[in-house]
Request: fold
Amino acid sequence: MRKRDKKRERRELINAFAMLLQIGLAMMTCMAMSFGIGFYLDRLLGTKYWIMIFLLIGILASIRSLFILTGKFQSPGSSRKGTEGKAEQGPEHGSEVKGESDAGSKKDAR
Reply:
C-alpha cells in the first residue's frame, strides 16, 4: 500500500511541475512574441512607442493564458469536455429538458 501512495505522490508532483512549466512557457511566449512584433514595428517605422503597446498586449495575453490553463476563465455552465460534460451535470443543470424528453418517449411507447 505504501508503494501505491509513493507512486501517486510522485505522479502528482510530476503533474504539478508540468503545469508550472506549461504556464511559465505560455506566459513567456506571449510576451516574447508581442515584444518582437513591437520591436520590429519600431525599427520599421522609426518610432519608440509600439514596443510598449505590444508589450502591454503581450502581458494581457499571458494573463489570459494563465486563466485558461488554470481553468478559472470558464463560465459556470461550461465544461472542458464539451458535450460529454452535459451528461455529468447534476439535477440543477438540464433536468427540465431531460424530463420533457422522457415524457415524450413514454407517450410514444404506449
About this structure: Residues 82-91, 93-98 have pLDDT under 50 and may be disordered. The CA atoms of residues 29 and 62 lie 8 Å apart. The two ends are 54 Å apart (CA to CA).
